[in-house]
From TrEMBL, chains A, B:
The keyword Repeat does not apply. GO terms for molecular function: magnesium ion transmembrane transporter activity. The lineage of its organism: Eukaryota, Viridiplantae, Streptophyta, Embryophyta, Tracheophyta. The keyword Magnesium applies. Keywords: Cell membrane, Endosome, Ion transport, Magnesium, Membrane, Transmembrane, Transmembrane helix, Transport. Acts as a Mg(2+) transporter. Can also transport other divalent cations such as Fe(2+), Sr(2+), Ba(2+), Mn(2+) and Co(2+) but to a much less extent than Mg(2+). It comes from Salix koriyanagi. The chain crosses the membrane at residues 6-27, 48-65, 71-101, 108-128, 148-168, 175-196, 216-233, 240-264, 276-296. It is found in: Cell membrane; Early endosome. It is a multi-pass membrane protein. Signal peptide: none annotated. Homodimer. Belongs to the NIPA (TC 2.A.7) family. This is Probable magnesium transporter.
């Protein structure tokens, strides 16, 4: 297996991040319910009484802890490993909802959980090792290699065309336009989040990277990408059903992030073909499990609290959550 | 990957076996439909007009070709590789049914197909290599090693207890009794089928194995196990719904076969932990995909022809099909 120390740290961080985020949904929802019971008005209908409920705030804090862990995980392990593991938070929340909130998990939902776990194990076993990075300039030199510049160029052109041409024309009829913009920008923001995370990690290790303009450039990219992403994600959610947007976004975003990481960090160089294929299969299995879990949630749930439960699925796209909270 | 020549042959044979068997269901069903249209009586209601329908016989021949290919596959590749690939015949039949019979495949069914394929790829990549076997005595010596004798002994005792004690008492209320007997016997019959197949392969290569009593002993075991299996499988099907029996039987039978093969042929010796875990995960994924595909078939199908379609799923347990046909 040759699982490096850094990969292990990243793996544990990604895992605990998923546990925290998954648990946070449940805590927040318990808070919402309690607030609704106390005031008689539900959040969905305009009440804000949940802001007085300590449980809701505890959930919020749990979520932030989870997001920070996810951010730090990117500094240690390749995105090919960290990004797909985000799906595990859905399992945690589904299982906890079953036991704590008495939201019955459909039998096929259990199958979805099993698949997510099996797929994650395959991914973890075949995760590539990252070569150690010693300065932000090293990341910079990866970012300006021709192949990655070509990727960035294509993304920028595509997103530009989608915003200028397709969004006004068919953005409100075709779900792929807004979610496409979010996913493409998302792949760039994860890459820059990884750069910023690595710079911070090196800084904490005593190797100050905040002196270099490259660090701040990456911070600027993070901010730009995330704001664009948030903007169009909200548009997508306003226009289409969350149940439609979420799986499409998850699949596109995760796939593009892995593609970007493979190009920029050359994750797959030096790996044998079998490992790469296994990783892709593992990824497909996790995606299928996620879709299955997501679809079967519809089967048994009553329509009340629907918004409150679907929203969390969306929050799984870790890198945007903190900003979403701040904005 | 280190995929040996023999593994490749076994893999191609198992794959074409699944294609033939999967296609045979569709051809037979088309034959049944045509016969029903011609005579006005359906097979399920007692008509035998399908015996005059050439299409039905073509389907039967296709199935026998598939079963022979499956039998030969066991002579070349380890059971750990061949057995789980049997699930692919379900995909072939589901996809063909979608296009040829216009039986709409549920969206989750497509997901099940994708999973079966992804899981199979992981299994194939990590399949162990078999050491070349040069005589039936070699297989005999593997069969009489203490660990495998312990397995056989436990199986015989367990099956005996189930037949004598549990079958009369709760065989008609608990689905696990009859299917358990079938699955345990099934694991032994696959091992002896593999022995007979290997002996035949060596004989065709000019190294006559039919002179040795061991070969005929294994033939005897195949016959005994398969007849027991058939007997209790029919009891299970008479007592319980096929939709309940099939997935349980598939999971138990495949798991026990892999266990028996790992003990007898030491498939996992010399494999690293990562490969073994990947294989198990791949197997779990294939099982989940099979269950998903099987469950969602229920969602959209009308109740007519139900028996006709469920029966085929059962036929997937390759090693018993020929006998089922003969008896």
């Amino acid at each position: 297996m040759g699982f490096s120390q850094d990969n292990l740290k990243g793996f544990v961080l990604a895992l605990s991040s998923s546990a925290f985020i998954g648990a946070s949904f449940i805590i927040k929802k318990k808070g919402l319910r309690r607030a609704a019971a106390a005031s008689g008005v539900r959040a969905g209908v305009g009440g804000f009484s949940y802001l007085l409920e300590p449980l809701w705030w505890l959930g919020m804090i749990t979520m932030i802890v989870g997001e920070v862990a996810n951010f730090v995980a990117y500094a240690f392990a390749p995105a090919v490993l960290v990004t797909p593991l985000g799906a595990l938070s859905i399992i945690v929340s589904a299982v906890l909802a079953h036991f704590i909130l008495n939201e019955k998990l459909h039998q096929l939902g259990i199958l979805g959980c099993v698949m997510c776990i099996a797929g994650s194990i395959v991914i973890v076993i075949h995760a590539p090792q990252e070569r150690p990075i010693t300065s932000v300039q090293e990341i910079w030199s990866m970012a300006i290699q021709p192949a990655f510049l070509l990727y960035v160029g294509s993304v920028v052109v595509l997103v530009f065309i989608m915003i200028v041409h397709f969004a006004p024309q068919c953005g409100h009829s075709n779900v792929l336009v807004f979610t496409g913009i979010c996913s493409f920008m998302g792949s760039l923001s994860v890459m820059s989040v990884k750069a910023v995370g690595t710079a911070l990690k090196l800084t904490f290790e005593g190797n100050n990277q905040l002196l270099y303009p490259e660090t701040w450039f990456f911070v600027l990219i993070v901010a730009t990408c995330v704001i664009t992403q948030m903007n169009y994600l909200n548009k997508a959610l306003d226009t289409f059903n969350t149940a439609v947007v979420s799986p499409i976004y998850y699949v596109m975003f995760t796939s593009l992030t892995i593609l970007a990481s493979v190009i920029m960090f050359k994750d797959w160089d030096g790996q044998n073909v079998g490992s790469i294929i296994s990783e892709i299969c593992g990824f497909i299995v996790v995606l299928s499990g996620t879709i299955l879990l997501h679809t079967t949630r519809d089967f048994e749930r009553s329509s009340s609290f629907r918004g409150a439960m679907f929203r969390p699925f969306l929050f799984d796209f870790h890198q945007i959550i903190l900003i979403n909270f701040v904005l």
